[in-house]
Amino acid sequence: MVSAPQPLASEDVALAVRDLTVSLPPGMERAHAVENVSFELKRGQILCIIGESGSGKSVTANAIMGLLPKTIRISSGAIRLEGMDLVGLSSDKLRDIRGRVVSMIFQDPLSALNPLMTVGAQIEEVMAAHDVGTPKSRRSRAIELLMEVGLPDPPLMYHQYPFQLSGGQRQRVMIAMALALEPAILIADEPTTALDVTTQAQILQLIRDIQRRKGMSVMFITHDFGVVAEIADSVVVMEKGHCVEQGNAEQVLKSPNHLYTRRLIAAVPHLTGKDRVPAEAAAASSILKVECLVKTYRSGSALFGRRRIVPAVNGVSFDLSPGRTLGVVGESGSGKSSLGRLLIKLLDSDSGSILFEGCDVARLSEAEFRPVRPKIQMIFQDPFASLNPRSTVGQILTVGPIAHGVPHKAACEQARELLAHVGLDAGTFDRYPHEFSGGQRQRIGIARALMFKPKLLIADEAVSALDVSIQAQILKLLDQIQRETGVSMIFITHDLRVASQICDEIAVMHRGQIVEHGPPSQIFLNPTSAYTRELVAAIPGEQQSSARAVGSQSTLAGHSHK
Amino acid sequence: MVTRMSGFLLNRLSQSIVLLVIVSIIGFTVLNLMPGGPLAQFGLDPGMTQKDVERLATQLGLNRPLWLQYLDWAWRLLQGDWGHSFRDGSSVLAVIGRHLLATLLLMGTSTALAIAAGTWIGIRGATHRYSLFDYCATIGAMVALSVPTFWFGLIGIYIFTLKLGWVPAGNMYTIGDGSVLDYLHHLILPSLVLSLVHVAVWSRYMRTATLDALSQDFVKTARAKGVSERRILLKHVVGNALLPMITLAGMQLPSILTGALVTETVFTWPGMGRLFLDSLGYSDYPVVMGLLIFSAVLVVLGNLIADIVIATVDPRIRLG
Question: Are A347 and A338 in contact (CB under 8 A)?
């Protein structure tokens, strides 16, 4: 706990971290979570800390807040906040600082709020914890804060429970809570990652506004360079516990010095606005023809109580040619995942038809559909949850084909070939899923889907859980596989930038319906529906890059968010 | 909200009735599949001729087909007539009533003790995870769960009655005394012995539930707000940890009222557990069926009450 006794903070520095090293318990992948990290957060500025998973960005934030788990501790360095040295401070002193001098908001605003307490009670708790005000004054302050973060009907909102709010509203409540005692510094740990793109744009705007209005200093942790471009004054780039580059935001974004920063920026998917060159000439017939597909969720008992009816997919129709990729894009609740599940008959549709190779699979019974199943395969979102932890990779790959009558030996041979094909080494076959990283697991998931030599792949948010650099690799792999095998793909995603990388056509879904359908150039450069325009405008940091890609800014300027 | 709650209750009630009918049919059938039957005990009685036995069977309606006996029994049950004990002819409800209070006293005390101690041990075990206390609590719970209750009962009697002479060895009260203090004096040992298993179960569940709540993001939020650890534990952790425990408590309700067979036998406690055992021995079918229906109703009721309590305390269910 020896800190270098140098003068750290000058007048305009709100937070200074100097040579911070946080050690991990022995036996972990590396000895230090962060090592010799130094940066300064200037007063009234937004500092973005960017890095991929495992870079140590959250550990840094937790170290500042004094919220590190007991097994992880600061082994050297200094953290100076508003003239106080935080390292080695007693837990009581740290507790007094938290919420009063420095506040924090988190990634998932639902789990970050106590489900059993009202919004108002949780905001008041900050003030009560620091003995500020009376119950009455706290209450009026809480309502005032709810108004300040732009929540509708604050007096009503005060009595609501977190589950009654939308994701964006919950994050606003978190922000209100963080602002309650007017802290000098706000630490935001991926606060928009779990939100829809339009909501993300609003929350970024809100943080920007509040920061300017109050002259607050913000330390903003993110993995998304788009967000950095949108909000940052200065940037710290972290890789595997080290700070590899830092400086002025514009400078780091435009002319990154460090190789890792360059790689990271290059990996960020951009709206290309260019149409993909198809793998082969379009065939006359379509492999999949969906007409007027409808699925309505009904919950609650028919006899007693209230029924809830949610139209998840409401009259969706589209065509897919062999060897092409259709992107299905939409925000949460738009019905895009329900559509995917309908196509693979994990859900039964209410009406409409799904013509797969000319046969209406929507009407087939489970037994009749079974022979068709191998031809339609799915790649799932979560590479951790979608592989059985108790099966070897070989078992995961071969169990399906063997169930469909492929001899054991042939299946194993094919599995080994496919693993090599998706870029995994031969030893993979006998190992267990937990031994692999997220990107490797997604490769296993892709190999699993390919075992059946499918005609149609449905990828549901297949790259959403991955870091950008891994994301780029997986997208490339999918593209390569399509060109080699001629498989058709339906690529479901919430991320328009990703969709623009890999799709021949894009269908934008909103409230169960396709509001716009066309090639990427139309969707991103000349969107006809208002909703698509709103979506495109909300993409963080896209103003400069798409302008670069297209050359003319005129089409886009009108849609830009600010 | 009121209409939704009543809709929920109606729904549950209709499910429960179906369940009770099924339980009673199965119980009735299985009971009558037992070899012998209620009149077998007279088979060796030299004072009873075959004719006498047959007359008795006709009187009690035992020579009718089984389904008719069931329908007759069920119809009377619905009218509040639970039948009469074969042993002494008193009504089944009265027999149950006589034993209910004793069981309620014993089980109520031991359950209250168990929940209080189990909750505390569970929370402390979770907050001081892998501490000496936690290890001792874990080992203690394993011992309490794996060693049969009667052993603890016998050891308790040996130490505290025979060696130390602190408490009586059995019965609910001293004949001729019957004061509150006397009742309490008799209650101490059996309720402690009985609570051992419950403490073990409850503390293990509470520990897991507390650990689960402690790892939630909102606990981190509360820390980030500067809330003290004590208040975090009381306000954020315990409240959320107790939610799943309500269901567990609901499942315990039947055992509170139906009694502990073994413990009541060891301590000659005149409760429901012993009533059940004795009635089985005498082939007293009306009482056995009565006890069966009684405990089935309690299971249904326990779950229902737990659901209502959860719906009241959890806003996600109350308003969702």
Answer: yes
In angstroms, the separation between the Cα of residue A112 and the nearest Cα of chain B is 4
The residues near B163 (Cβ < 8 Å, ≥ 6 apart) are none
Task: Decide if A4 touches B, using CB distance below 8 A.
Answer: no
At a CB cut-off of 8 Å and minimum separation 6, what does A400 contact?
Answer: A374, A448, A451, A452
- Residue A3 and residue A88: Cα distance in Å, rounded? 10
Opening angle at CA A386, ends A268 and A494, nearest 5: 35
For B65, phi then psi, to 5°, come to -60, 155
Q: What are the start-end ranges of the E strands in chain B?
A: none
**What separation, in Å, do the N-terminal and C-terminal C-alpha atoms of chain A show?**
46
- The answer to whether the beta carbons of residues B39 and B56 sit under 8 Å apart is yes
Query: Which contacts of A472-480 are long-range, i.e. CB under 8 A and separated by 24 or more positions?
Result: A472/A267, A472/A269, A473/A439, A474/A439, A474/A442, A474/A443, A474/A446, A475/A269, A475/A501, A475/A502, A477/A422, A477/A423, A477/A443, A477/A446, A478/A446, A478/A502
Q: How many CB atoms lie within 10 A of CB A355?
A: 16
Could you give the ipTM of this predicted complex?
Answer: 0.80
Q: Considering CB atoms only, which of B11, B239, B243 is closest to A305?
A: B11
A375 contacts A452 by C-beta, under 8 angstroms: yes
With CB atoms and an 8 Å threshold, state whether B11 touches A304.
yes
Interface touch A106/B10, C-beta < 8 Å: no
Q: Which of B7, B226, B316 sits opposite A115 (nearest CB)?
A: B316
A250 touches chain B (CB under 8 A): no
Give the number of other Cβ atoms within 10 Å of residue B32's Cβ.
Answer: 14
What does R_g of chain B's alpha carbons equal in angstroms? 24
- A253 vs A226: CA distance, rounded Å: 10
Write out the two tokens for A175: 């922000």
Dihedral angle sign, alpha carbons of residues A469, A471, A475, A480: positive
B220 touches chain A (CB under 8 A): yes
Q: How far apart are CA A319 and CA A500, in angstroms?
A: 19
Pinpoint the alpha helices (H) of A31-85.
57-65
Residues of A in contact with B316 (CB under 8 A): 115, 161, 163
Q: How far apart are CA A504 and CA A328, in angstroms?
A: 11
**B257: its two tokens:** 């009222």
3-state secondary structure of B161: helix
User: Binning pLDDT at 50, 70 and 90, where does residue A551 land?
Assistant: very low
Label residue A300 by pLDDT band (50, 70, 90).
Answer: low
**What pLDDT is stored for residue A8 in this prediction?**
43
DSSP per residue, A210-240: HHHHHT-EEEEEES-HHHHHHH-SEEEEEET
User: Are A503 and A325 contacting, i.e. CB atoms less than 8 angstroms apart?
Assistant: yes
Each residue's pLDDT tens digit, A37-63:
999 999 999 999 998 888 889 899 999
Among B217, B314, B320, beta carbon nearest to A116: B314
Q: pLDDT value at position A45?
A: 93
The three-class DSSP label of residue A291 is: strand
Instruction: Judge contact between A493 and A461, C-beta under 8 A.
Output: yes
| Residue A103 scores a pLDDT above 80 | yes
Q: What is the pLDDT of residue A552?
A: 36
Give the number of other Cβ atoms within 10 Å of residue A66's Cβ.
21
Mean of the pLDDT values across residues A531-554?
A: 63
Q: CB of A95 within 8 Å of any CB in chain B?
A: yes
Please give the share of chain B, as a percent, with pLDDT higher than 90: 31
H-helix or E-strand spanning residue A369: helix A366-369
Q: Does A69 touch chain B (CB under 8 A)?
A: no
Task: Name every residue whose Cβ is closer than 8 Å to that of residue B320 and which is 6 or more positions away in sequence.
Answer: A163
Interface test with A, best of B218, B223, B225 (most A CBs within 10 A): B225
